[in-house]
Structure formats: C-alpha cells, structure tokens
Fold these 4 entries.
Entry 1:
Amino acid sequence: MTRLKKTYCVLSLAFAVVVFAAAVFLSYGGTKVYAASMDPESITSFEEGSTDNSAGTSERNLSGINISINDETAAVSTPVRMLLVLTILSLAPSILIMLTSYTRIIIVLHFIRTALGTQTSPPNQVLIGLALFLTFFIMWPTFQEINERAIAPLDAGEITMEEAFAEAEAPIRSFMYEHGKLQTKDVNLFIDISGETYDIDENAGPEAYDEVPMNIIIPAFIIGELRQAFVMGFLIYIPFIVIDMVVASVLMSMGMMMLPPTTISLPFKILLFILADGWNLVINSLVQTFY
C-alpha cells in the first residue's frame, strides 16, 4: 500500500471517529421527552413547529415534530434527528450514483485512463473528484429546482414530507427524460420483469412515463447511462488502438518481438492526447451529451 493510500485511510478513520464522538456528545444534551401516559388514546394532537409547555415549565423552542400527550408537549430529540441525517448521508453515495450524471462521467474517465495505458495516472482520487465536480456542474439546475420546490417549503412548514418527496421527484424525472435520454426499450424491459402493465404512448414524449413508478425508471435510467458510457469509451479507444497496431507492426518488421509494444506506444499515445487537447475535447463532449 502506498504512502498516499495509507494517509487516506488514516484520515478517513479519524473523520469517522470524530463524527461518532460528536454524535455521542450531542446525545447527552438532547431534549427530554415527557409523557403523562403511554396510552395511544391519550394523544390529543400531533403538529409541527415550536409549542409552549402548558404545565408551567419554562418556554422552549422545540423544532421538528411535536406531539401533545394529555395536553403536555413532547418533541423528537436532537439525537434522533441527527440519526436521520446520518442515515440520509449514508445513502447519499447510492443516490448520487443512481440518479445523476455521475455514472456516465466516471466510466468515461476510466476508459480514458485505460486507453492511454497509464495504469494509475491520473489516480482514482483525481478521477472521482473530477467526476463529482462535473456532476455538480451538470446537476446544479436540478438541485436548485429541488431546493425551491421541496426542501425550502418543507423547512418552512408549508408542505408535508409526502408532498416534499413528490415535488422532489418531478425535477429528477425531468432530468432522466430530457438529459439522461431515457429509452423506451429499457423501461419496457423492467416493466416486463415486474409483471406490471402501464399504458405508455411512445409518441407522447417524456410525459408518457409519468405513471411509471421510480423503482422501474431508476434501473432503466442506469442501463441507459451504462450504454452511453460504453459507446463513448469505444470511440475513445479507436485512435489509441491504431497507434498500438502501428507500433506493433513496426517492431515485428524490425524483429524486435521481445520488446513490449505498449512500452513504445505509450509516449506516442500521450503525445497524441496532448496535441489534440484531449482533456478539453473529452470533457466538452461528455458534458454536451447532457444538453
């Protein structure tokens, strides 16, 4: 294991320890929940926002979900809310991979490195970081729309959690339809596997998939992204394969059969990539596929 990987592992472990220690520390200072009775029929109201304690205790600012039990106030404590946030953060990588442009970008970047034959240059950390920032660049309008339609109204208490999920789903579906180029054959594949039947009019445009649930749209979108990424990877490979074939033919004609062709062709492939301004060309073409 190289020194860079060891440093990365140590920093990741230290970050995990700090997060765990912060969660334990905050759990001791959480809001206490009082209840006069555990009888479900004693619950008199269930509301959101901050309420006053009618039992004569000091006024508290209870944010989140408030429950009134026998005219006494209870609230979801800070550790519970933090647990929910950490749960969402643990699912964030899967959400990022499944619902955004990240899949296509990272696969194409790995194809570039493999086609060049540079082994670990650029390293995985650089490719993942570049893919993340390109994903944020492409998905920023979608993220802004989700924030305006779902997150901000939910935080202000204007809509419920179910309504927020419905509002957040619409921009994601729009991205999959328009920018992800969702294909009907992929949707039909998972519809057939699920055994369900949906009335899809292929001439109606993206609106034809509105009745199809997300558990079918998401895997169909991922398959489409994989297909598009492999097509781009094939096109990237073509010029570098030509260089390998030319170098191998020259070495064979000179009788240097024991000399690996990749050793000689690597500088020429890097030179071709530099002269063609490869990074600019590939990134521009990759981003334009989403517009």
Entry 2:
Amino acid sequence: MYSPICIPTLCRADKFKNLVESLKKCNEAKDSELFVALDYPPAQKYEEGCRQINDYLETLTGFKAVNVIRRSENLGAIENIKSLLATVCENYDRFIFTEDDNIFAPAFLEYVNSGLDYFEGDKNCESISGFSYPVQMPESGTTVIKMQRYFSDWGFGTWRDRYFEARDTLTNDFFKKVYKSPSLAKKLRKASKKNYTRAWAFMSAPNVRPYDYTNSCGQILLDRYSIMPKKTLVKNTGWDNSGVHCDETSPIAKLFMEQELDMREHFENFVFDDAESEKVNAIVDKSMIGSYDRIPYLKTRVKEILYRYK
C-alpha cells in the first residue's frame, strides 16, 4: 500500500495544478490516495483562485482516490495543515506531505515510499525528504544523506508516530527549557546559529507547528535526522513572492529557482555514509542555507543569558 499524499491549499491555482500534474507523472500515483484540504477564502481576493482549484478537483483523475476536504470557514495555513494531518492519521500510519507550490521528479513517490519502508524501524529518522539543498555534494557511491541540522517540508514522507511525537514535543515549553539549559542552548547554537536565532520565537509563538525550522531544531536537540537524496526530487516554485517567506530578491532565491530536478524514472538503493553525511551537514550550514544575521544572533545570545537568570 502506498502512502496517502496530503496537500493543503487555498488559492494558488496554477501552482497547485502544476504540482498535481507532476505527481501524476509518478508511476505510483495511480495507486496513491490524494487528500486535499481546500481552505475557505478569508477575503474576496482569494475567491477566484479557490474556485479554480475546486473546479479542477471536481474532474481530477490519475490517482487511486481524490479526497477533498472543503473548509466552511477559514482556518489559516497552520490549522488547515494540522487538521488535514489529524484526519489522515486516523486511518494511516504514514503519509506524504507537500505544500502547494512544489513540482516533483518522476521518481519522487517511488523514493519516498521505499524510504518509509527502509527506515521505518529507525526511530531517529524523522522523515524521507524529496528535497535536497543546492550545495556541492561529494562524489561517491552514496545516494542519500542523513541531514540533521536542517529539515525541509518541501515534499516529504513521515510516519504517524514520528509526526505525533514532533507535534507534542516541539512546544512553547520545550523551547523554554532549551533556553533555560546552557547545554541544550549551546548544542543548538553550535549546530546552527540560524536555527538558534529563529528558535527564540518558538517560546511564545501562539501556534507552533512541527516541520520546517521547528523540526530543524528538534532534529538537532533530539539527535534525529532526515534522509535527503543527493540530487533533489523536488523544486519549490514559490520563489516568485507567491510563497510565504519566499522573497525573489533574496540571494538564496536564485539558488532554488535554478535547481534542476533529478529526472530519472527510478531511484536506486538507499546508500549512505555517516562520515559523509556529517561533512554535508557542515557544508550546508556554512553555505547560504545556513547564513544568519549577526545582530539578531547576538541579541538572542544576550536574551538567552538574561532569560536564564531572571
């Protein structure tokens, strides 16, 4: 049985259609259930895009089943995602998740489903990520990397138990404990100054959700990792200012927009090397991916010290 595919969306009709059409090119699509959570438009400017997505879904074929959850009121991005995953996890022990602005290589579903089988017994594995960072990978016989310092939610698969653990562990209180603990704060800071700086906000954020930067911190602090291919099977198309936190003028945008997908029809075996993975983690952190603003970082250092002794 193949993992269900979960997609939250609202109004980006063209990007949503491109995503689904790329998934349909995967051989496993016809045996996979699709779950789409279509949020209710919060304002008139979102209504046309939402209507176009709804019309497209009405006649969509190419999957084992197409399940559409149409919201009767606007939940917002985070609650729409949480509710969607809660629904899917009632009946499945694993799932594939993607935001609505990705496109996929033909081997994406094969790779993720095979990875979920291969790494299921390793409770330190958080996810099977289809995305890979645009850095120079070592030339060797390996095919995947164990990525600890950063987590990508641009198309990945995970297991119900891992999702619930992340959801219930990575809370406001968890991050308060991190900044109260010199050893934990140092562990996070040493691995990624970028994540260390961002994590400060997680102590008070009203709606912390697992994945993205939250899980990046969790992987570091809980000694977990995600599997990533050495060449990406996912491309994010939201770097045209349509995606949240995706500014087309940022230096990193060019890297992501110029990424080329691995277009092979099939993914080979999962071959990895721990020493090589550690090296790639360091390369990613020292690249533009791990770049951080020094002033906010130093302010966070000061706030950490004051918070610990208040």
Entry 3:
Amino acid sequence: MRPAVFAHVNPDGKDPFDRMEDAGIAFVAAAENIAMGTDGAFDVGDFEDLFMDEPECAQNHRGNILNRDLTHVGIGVHHCGDGNLYVTQDFGTFSFDDIRDDPHEYCEGG
C-alpha cells in the first residue's frame, strides 16, 4: 500500500510538471497551488480567501492565480475520509504566443 502524500513532489520524486507531462499536457509555462484544511472548518471559499490574502506581485498562490501568462486551470477538490479537505489548482499555458513581455498593469517590472 502506498503512503498517502499531499505535496508538490510525490514519493516517486515527480513534481506537478512531471505529472502534467505524464498526462500528455504539453505546456510552455505551468504552476501549481495546493492546500489542505480540516473539513467543516474550511470550505472551498475559505481556500480562495486564503490564496488571495497574500502579498501582491509575489511568487505565491495569489501570484499563480493572477498570472496573466497562465491561461488555463484545472481544479481538484476532495473531501477525504481523514476529515480533511484537499484543494489543488494546476495552471498552464500551451503557446509561447500567450506569454506577454509587456509590464503587468499593477506590478512594477513584471
């Protein structure tokens, strides 16, 4: 039996980008957000609030969500028997044409 793991890198050493490639997703840019909280104490809206209540223009959950170069998202939500709620967000861009090099409207230099 495999141990239960909720992390960006699984016990086989694969990160989200490896898993996307293994699934046949041909991205040119990608990112992942993951979060876990006690079911009942958290709901999906709470995770949204936590993700967005982070510093602007930083490499964090909020930055992944607002990154205009990440044009697609896949979302997973799982209520587990261990009493926890697990949320994943995988973001991707599939064309270099979607990557912008002009400055972001509200973040200096990027």
Entry 4:
Amino acid sequence: MGNGDRFQLPSGRTLRFFHLPYIQASYSMAVYDCRTHALFSSTLFSTLHTGDEVFAEKKHIESASQYLTAYCGSQAALDYAYERLGSLQLSYILPQHGVLIQEHLIPAFLDILNNVYPGRLLETISGSVKREHIQAFVSIIREVLGDRFTDYTQTEDIQLLVTQISQKEPEALRQIVPRIHAQVKAFNIPNPLTQDRIYTQKSLVNLQQNQILSAVQQQMIHADYTIGNTAQIKAGTKKLTSTEERLIIVFTDIRGFTRWCENRSPEEIVSHLSHQYEEISRIIGQYGGRVNKIMGDGLLAYFPETAIAQSFYAAMQIQRNIYNDKSNALLPAGIGADIGTVILGDLGEYSRLDYTVIGSPVNHAARMCSLSDAGQITVSRQLFSLLPEQTREKVSALPSFAVRKTRVKPSDPELEAVTADAEDLFPLLPEA
C-alpha cells in the first residue's frame, strides 16, 4: 500500500494507509478505520512495561515519550506524523505495543510528538568527554570513598578506578555508579564506563570473572541504548540492587568424584547427585540456612550471623548422615565455613541474572573446604572463636583437632583454620 491509499472491505468499511517514515523504520505505516475512527498506529505511541493494563492512563504518556526518544532519530519524522494524524478524527489509537488509547487522552499523546528529544542518543555518543568532565567523575569517587581514595591508583582513568573499586569494595559502587551516570546525562556526553574501552583476550576473561563490574557495565549500556528509568541504576537485582550482609558461608564438596564417575552412566551420576543435594539441602534448611547454588560436585550455602552454632551443627549433621549411609547413596564430602560481610544480590544482566553472594568470606570458606578431606569439617579461626565456649573446649580436646595455616592466594594474608574429623564431632551434636 502507498501513502494515502484506501482499501474497501466487503463489509463496506474503508481502511486508509499512512506512511510514518523513520518513527522506527523507513517503512512504518499506520492504518485508519474511516468508520470507527480508530488508528492502528504501528510502533507510534508504543509503551513498554505496562503490566496488566488494557487502557492507557496518564502514566503511559511518559513511557510512550521514552520510546520515541530512544527509537526516533529525527524531529522531521515527528512533525510529519503530527501533521498527518492531527487532521484525522480519532476515537481510539491502538499501538503495536502497549495499551489502547481512548479519546480523552489522544490530545496528550499527540502532544508527545512536539515535546520529545529525538536523536538524543546520536548527539550524546557523538560528543566528547573533556578533562573537566573526568575531574567531576573523580570528585564523585573521592567524595564517596573519603580517606580510602588514597588507597587507589591516583589517576583520571575512570575505568581503571571503577575496576579497582569493584575488586576491593564493590559495595561502594552502589553510590558511585548512579551518580556518575546522572552526571553523564547532565553533561550530555558519552559514558566513559561503556565505550572507548580496550580489550584483550585476558581482560575479557578477567571481566567475566569480575561479576560486579560486568553487571554494572551491562546495565549502564542497557540504560544508554534502550528506554526506561535510567535513574534506577544501582550496583547489584534486575536493577543491580544488592545488600551487604554479615553471613556464615558454608561449602561442601564431594571427594573423589571424578574417579567415582568413571564407568557410570550419566543417568546414575545425576541420580546420585540429586539425592545427595536433596539430603544436604534438607539439613541446611532444617538448621536455618539457605542453599545458594549447586556447582557440579560442590554446594554453597549461607546462614545468618545469628546462627553460628546451627551452621556448625548442620555441617556435623551432613557428615553424620553420610557416615551412617550404608547404601552408598551419599558420597563422601569435605566441608568448610567462614563468617564475614558479603554482598548478597542478583548479578549479571537481563538475559542472565544470578542471585549469589560474593566477597572475601566466600573465598575463605571455599579455601577451608579445600583443606577438608572426606569426612572432615574445617572452619576459620574467626568462626570457631564465635562458637559457644563449651563447644570450643570439647572440640579442642578431640584427637583429630588441628590448627592449620593457609592462604587463598600466595600473596594473600595468612589465615588460621581449625579442622576435625566429623566422626569425633558426632557426640557433640544435639539430639533432635
């Protein structure tokens, strides 16, 4: 159909076609029902994230405006659409995406065409970041970090600073990132955190491993190039929300799993793992903990800091159930734990969000677990010192009790760990 063409239906109704080029694409076209005065407006006046609403409300005007701002590149296209549609008698507008616009709101939606900012994105990314802009971003970081700012490389490389912060104190990004993003919008300049970056194969691998930084950059790119409330960018759920919690982190890991898998079918392996993790998860929940994730032959769980004794009892109960299993349905495992402040929340980007915990205590608990042989429990000296005094005395008197020193990495500070055979610990487990 060409611009202005009419199509007469057997029912006697007439449809009229209007090209609305460059609203989203050069071929965008609206269809007008001359009898009902309804306009099928293609992507014009589309709204997203409308929930269950069928009819437009005033709140949808802003959403439709954001859509045009993001996807329309020319004011001329909007002026042409306004001239065309303004000459029609309209009772309803039905966009391709979103809600039905009734007659009383149609003038407000038409006014959008005169009040949006098409081409903003093109103008923004074609701008230049000047030294005074960088200095403003550095000032934001210095203000958030305070005296800790001197702990970082004194540079005006914003990407480097944010990378270092994400590694040492990722919780600070919750304040830094939204403020930098707001300042970028105020300056109407390209975002220094999302473009003109230099990657190597090694740096891409490092970025994937740095979940906080990767998530922040993905969300900022999403906010720059799509529609939505960009002011909601935070560091860590679907809008990168995270919480800082003091938790007990517990790892369990099956010992000899690779050798055990030899000559077994995938079905048998999956069946054993499912049974094992069902049993471990039940015990974790019974003592007030929560399973965070299952990683092949390992499991990560956490407990609130008020459940110190319960987390220890849960580890003992897991080992006792494995020890007492005469059917060999449960495989031998080592267990490790630590306590400390972690970041708890969703990490990733829209297509892949993962609710998880990150921080030094997670790494330390994993290291404690690696020190445990099958049937052993290893906890950090810090966690052990918080157990009830009577429990500490009894554990310290066990023949298998041992204090060990370790590091997560060779360059890291030394950690003290306490290890004991679970079989020796069973008598300390309270009866249910």
